Amino acid sequence: MVWILGLYIINSLFMLIVAIREVRRPAKALIGLVICLVFPLIGFLFYLCMTNPIPLRQKRLTSTQNDSEALPDSFRYSSLLIARSLRHLAVNGLRTGKVQILTNGIETYQTLMDSIKKAQKSIDLEYYIYRDDQVGRCMTDLLIERASAGVRVRFVRDGWGSRKFPKSQISRMMQAGIECRSSFPLRFPWVMSYWSYRNHCKIVVIDGEEAFTGGINVGDEYTGLKPNVGFWRDTHIRITGKPANDLQAVFDAHWNIAAPETTWAGRNIQPEDTGTPVLVRNQRLKPENRPGNTPPSPSWLTEWSDEPIALNETNVDTLSGTKSVQNAYIQTFEGNPGVPTPIIREVYFTCLSHAIQSIDITNPYFVPDADIVMAIKAAVARSVRVRLLVPRHVVPIIVGAASRTYFGELLEAGVHIYLYNKGVLHAKLMIIDGEIAEVGSSNFDLRSYRLNYEVCEVVYSSEIARELAEQFERDLADSIPLRMEDLLRRTQLQRILDQTARLLAPMI
Prior knowledge:
Layout: H1 2-21, H2 26-38, H3 42-51, H4 77-86, E1 95-103, H5 105-117, E2 122-127, H6 134-148, E3 152-158, H7 167-175, E4 179-183, H8 190-193, E5 198-199, E6 202-206, E7 210-214, E8 232-233, E9 235-241, H9 243-257, E10 259-260, H10 300-305, H11 313-316, E11 326-335, H12 343-354, E12 358-362, E13 366-367, H13 370-381, E14 385-391, H14 397-413, E15 416-420, E16 424-425, E17 429-432, E18 436-440, E19 444-445, H15 446-450, E20 452-460, H16 462-477, E21 479-481, H17 484-488, H18 492-503
Parallel strand pairs: 2-3, 3-4, 5-20, 8-16, 12-14, 13-19, 14-15
Antiparallel strand pairs: 1-9, 1-11, 2-6, 4-10, 6-7, 7-9, 11-20, 12-17, 15-21, 17-18, 18-20
Organism: Marinicrinis lubricantis
Keywords: Membrane, Transmembrane, Transmembrane helix
Protein name: Phospholipase D-like domain-containing protein
């Protein structure tokens, strides 16, 4: 009996450590205590693994220069207030530049590859997911071609999201002179201390003057033509001018903390001269014409490559249909788990709190904290129209189950919720008062706020907001409204499972 008492005392001390350590985050403290209670001793070790016992030590990425511009008085009061409230969180304050909205993968890849082909000095890429499929091969071969032409190319991938990217391709890139690094790679000692941190950014900066960011990674599924995935709805943006320097600063900061890639000892893989690949809508690469040394996938890729692309109405009816470039005021924000302030969460909260007319949110993973929920409900109470667009089917299932637990109180407060039913919804954006647009890589969840490196752009432009609003309306046409009756029809077991998933939300 004495040893049982001893184990009880030790486990109680562990629970006290959890409570003290997470005193500023009650939700996270609760899940930690539950784990310790259900799995004595072992639960504490699991908690330590999930919450990173070795914290990152980094400074917030802010400018040392005082070159921030001011938003003209011609903007709405809410725009002026939001821009002023966010200026101390932005990388370089408020900047003027040009913005182009890119809707879905084919449009994004074509525009991106066209810009990469024109690069003269440098190409910097940072992706959470970078695949070795048809799109990835086109991108890799193009980077190798530009590196061979004397352009400095730096490539950063996330250790978890791009864990399947083969060493053979890394070797090809490095042989061509591309500098390659990995954020939080799955190898010792990184995996022992930082494995739950993730670099979720999607950034490309070309010659320091042109930048791309948003929700689109590098992979065939983002084209919307991958058979076992189906239609893919996403949003990216292209930025030129001074704001591109801000994304360059974000990339440089992430580059400095990433680990250099390692290659197989003795491996000598030379890049082949395959010319400059171009991703075109009406042509697919035959398997025998694929560049590189790795054979094509025998599954869906072979089937996809053997048939000409038929971009019928189903494929293209949600493409933006515009190549317009608009002048805009832009603020860049970096979500950084190494600082105590959750920057992206504060950006969302500020935008929601100061809206006076309308809020349209599109996000695939909606598992917010209590403050964000309260900001949304408070906006409705101020007579602000709030519409939330989320996927009807969410992967992983546990995230969708946790999301459903928020819908009841939001519907009751007056939020209009729509479930996207056409395919995969992966776009991450907000439109505020018809003048402000937020586009980036971050989801509405605690992982994005506190554990991921994220990046987002807040764009002040009625033209850009209008383009995104028009796309939002097209997305609503492919969605079904969620009613309170739909939630009430769920069985008691389903509700219990949803609540259990929400309990795990701080660690999802």
